[in-house]
User: What shape does this take?
Amino acid sequence: MSDKDISQAVISRLPRYFRYLGDLKERGVERISSQELSDIMKVTASQIRQDFNNFGGFGQQGYGYNVNYLYDEIGKILGLDKTHSLVIIGAGHLGQAIAGYTNFTRRGFVFKGAFDKNPALFGTRIRDVEVRPVDEVVDFIRQNNIEIAVLTIPKEQAVPMSQKLIDSGIKAIWNFAHVDLDVPDNIQVENVHLSDSLMKLSYNIDRYEKTLKS
Ligand code: NAI
Assistant: This one.
């Protein structure tokens, strides 16, 4: 089966498998059955087998899964065996927090540049990277083969910025602005809205309290 046929639902579960396998690996666990993985991840064993079958299985009858191998293979599927360079556009609270999070670098996402429109920020540093004027971002992306732009600017600014990014040769946008971006198929967009998650939490608090009362 080619990657094209794999549903986004399966792809969206892979990072979680990868995280759990990383933890198992750190604890020195060498192999695990789908039932054991199911118990710790609270996903059915058949779901796990189905998910992994999309990629040719990985398991051996009677042995289970080799944790190191599975971790590496899922990492490869997720493209984590390569490095990806990224720039932050909008070096405010959120942009600085993301750029300052060194764990992304450990995963292969290398923070190469930070851009803002506020002159007061030019020349300041986030980790060892200098904040530059946003007018320089397109040239910077072209000259440094940057793959990912992280958009942490207000939504009104995000659409015109995405148009500039289309011309820059960027491959992907990690969009934190609360607006949908219209980009061609050759540019991948992943939207992140923390408030969606918070609203889900609010719903679940409410629902749980209603069950207590009923
Ligand atoms: P902030 O005001 O601290 O930072 C925004 C930065 O963007 C400022 O430094 C500003 O000068 C810069 N900026 C504005 N327009 C720009 C442009 N055209 N080019 C380059 N830089 C530009 O705001 P904060 O808290 O960092 O939030 C940034 C954005 O992210 C906001 O739109 C906010 O709504 C959104 N946000 C999204 C979240 C999510 O889960 N998706 C969570 C938190 C914030």
